[in-house]
Amino acid sequence: MAQFMDVHTNMPGVTAEALLEAHRADLAIQDEESVDFKSAWGDPVTGHVFCLSEGPDKDAIQRIHERAGHPYDEIHEITVTA
Amino acid sequence: MAQFMDVHTNMPGVTAEALLEAHRADLAIQDEESVDFKSAWGDPVTGHVFCLSEGPDKDAIQRIHERAGHPYDEIHEITVTA
Q: What's the 3-state SS for chain B?
């Protein structure tokens, strides 16, 4: 499995409840694509949300996010960490 | 303390060794600004690096990153998580 950081750039005003609901929508179906969403971090002021996940490839991450109603705007495959 | 995700957008080809060295340079001086860098995730292909930290404000994060030689290009204050 690979690790990814995807970015949503247009979620201004996102609340804790809305982010949790979105995350749970991903978790509910992620097994169907062998994806594992780890964490989500949001800034309601800039409207950015960052999601860390593991999965087979970028398209699998996007399929889950799209079906849950929040496709990512960009994604990065994380191959170095510190 | 507040939580932040800062983004470096121009680190193509970053290696595991280079990211670890950069992270350690932050850790070595972060106490001077009451900053705590938690994790860094990098994609050498897109050249993006994401740093999660805690600190008093965005400027304190930037001062540490600048002194360590890698100022961020953007930063987001994380107030919602899931």
A: CEEEEEEECCCCCCCHHHHHHHHHHHHHHHHHHCCEEEEEEEECCCCEEEEEEEECCHHHHHHHHHHCCCCCCEEEEECEEC
In this complex, do A50 and B5 lie within 8 Å of one another by their Cβ atoms?
yes
CATH level 2 (architecture), domain A2-78: 2-Layer Sandwich (3.30)
List of chain A residues whose C-beta atoms are within 8 Å of the C-beta of residue B26? none
Per-residue pLDDT tens digits for A6-54: 999 999 999 999 999 999 999 999 999 999 999 999 999 999 999 999 9
Partners of B3 on chain A (C-beta within 8 Å) are 41
Taking the CA of residue B14 and the nearest CA in chain A, the distance in Å comes to 8
